[in-house]
Amino acid sequence: MVKLVIGHKGTGKTKIMIDSANDAVEKSDGSIVFINTDSRLIYDLNYKIRFICMEEYPHITNSDEYIGFLYGVISGDHDIEIIYIDSILKHADFELPDLTEFVDRLKDISKVHELDFVVSISADKEQLGHVNFEGLEIMN
Questions:
Q1: Domains in the chain, number
Q2: How far apart are the first and last CA of the chain?
């Protein structure tokens, strides 16, 4: 399943994601991954959560490369249950129109690999009118 946390900057999306990840790691038998643009959140997350800082991967510049990166993360750990992606619009030069295909691809990956994605997006639901919300859960 793909879950979205949406809203403008400063509406508490990252806090929702951190709390959800910390709760999930306590209940999970598998791995939890948290991807962020920088390392500022590393100490807010439980030490059992695999933290990935995208600043360490500057050559990932578009959604195809980002999807390939996610496949690499998944292939390196077949026990992943949830991947959190904070502020996707700050990763790999993403823009709102890119989200339609990206979210659809996450849905497919989620089904095939039996894992969940939680993605935060700094936008209102109205701005995401082109995204197919069928099969998505809005967390906030």
A1: 1
A2: 16
